Amino acid sequence: MRDFTYFSDKNRMNLILFDDSAWDNLLPLTFNRPVSDLRIGILTIAGKWEKIFGTPASFITRPHLALKYPLKTTEDSLLINSSLLPDEPLVSSIRAMPEHSALQKEGVLLAVRTDQSGTADFGVEKWIERAVPYEGKVTRVDFPWKIFMLNGREIETDFERITLNRKGEKAGTTVRIIGRGRVFIEPGFRGEHIILNPSGGPIYLGRNSEIMEGSVIRGPFALCEGSTVKLSAKIYGPTTIGPGSKVGGEINNSVIHSYSNKAHDGFLGNAVIGQWCNLGADTNNSNLKNDYSEVRVWSYPANRFISTGLQFCGLFMGDHSRCGINTMFNTGTVVGFSANIYGGGFPRNFIPSFSLGGAKRLTALTLEKALEVAGRVMERRGIRLTGADRSIFEYIFRYTEPLRKNG
């Protein structure tokens, strides 16, 4: 259940989060969601803004997502760029916006306050022309690697938002907390004979989550509701494990979205894993090139590999993708939506959506088979594949078809 108590306004404004070109830059992670539904820190980006303004958000996003992420319009709406991470100066400036006004920063539209007609006819370029420059700094999640780069900062700020004026549960007598730092335990957490080290950043253990015996965890770390860390795992922060996920082995500076599994041994580092993904036993990814050069990754809008400017950059995997046992991913690999990777050797650094195979050969996965598997996977968690989900699959299948043909 969502909590909207932080900085709650007496007169709650209608909150709308809008997508811009960051949605394209963040593919394949955004194929199935608006930018604001990406998780970074403990909460999603939408969850952060909802907590600040004390009201649920609606969305202006790509047309194929509109049924699942609908828009609500009223006579007084506040529209915020969905790639923005909130901080106090930015929030204060947005709160102070008069009616029919807009803020921009170096050509990026940050926020708009408008009426129902302005929302219905919303366009980024239209509002940029009349927007007032914002003088402060802004932080945006506008490329996939920003998610793990900014995760430590966001665990810290989300930790403050979530734990404000709250007292957590006590750790069990066999839980060893070493170093100085903060650990917050929600009701229903289970864990014995584990080591937690919050000296590098806070550790948040969500409602009904579990850490099994022998695990060693360094903060900043977030284990979201209903997630599990399996026996003798080694996790380095900043790392986030999304709701309903299961992880094991060695993990470093990664974000795993909800209902995804990396349940066995193997290394995952500087990575972002989407929703409903599964990494087979002993899957490993490289996060550093042998020559220590900058890592390049596939960009959907550029239709080519681009530089990240980073030495450490691992794996990006879109929703509903999976890989078989002993899979090896090279540095900066991008796996699309609903791909199934298996076999020996290193697969290509870019795996198109709805692809089947590995290093030797890739073939196209049919839409019907992808839907069948997704339905079966979701049903195991008591969640139904809806008509809206099916239409999103169909859109992504058509959108990504040229990449499979050219690949």
CATH class of the largest domain: Mainly Beta
The CATH architecture name of the largest domain reads 3 Solenoid
Radius of gyration: 21 Å
Spatially, the strands of the biggest sheet line up as: 10-13-16-19-22-25-30-33-35
How is the main sheet built?
Answer: 9 strands, parallel
Shape: globular
Give the overall pLDDT as a whole number: 95
The count of strands amounts to 37
- Percentage of β-strand residues: 25-35%
Low-confidence segments, given as residue ranges, are 1-10
Give your account of this protein's structure.
With 407 residues, the protein is of the alpha/beta class. The protein has 2 domains: 14-142, Alpha-Beta Complex (Spore Coat Polysaccharide Biosynthesis Protein SpsA, Chain A); 148-406, UDP N-Acetylglucosamine Acyltransferase, domain 1 (3 Solenoid). It is built from 10 helices and 37 strands. A hairpin with a 2-residue loop joins strand 5 (101-105) and strand 6. The radius of gyration is 21 Å and the shape is globular. The N and C termini lie far apart (43 Å).
Give the gist of this structure.
The chain starts with 13 loop residues before the first strand and ends with a helix.
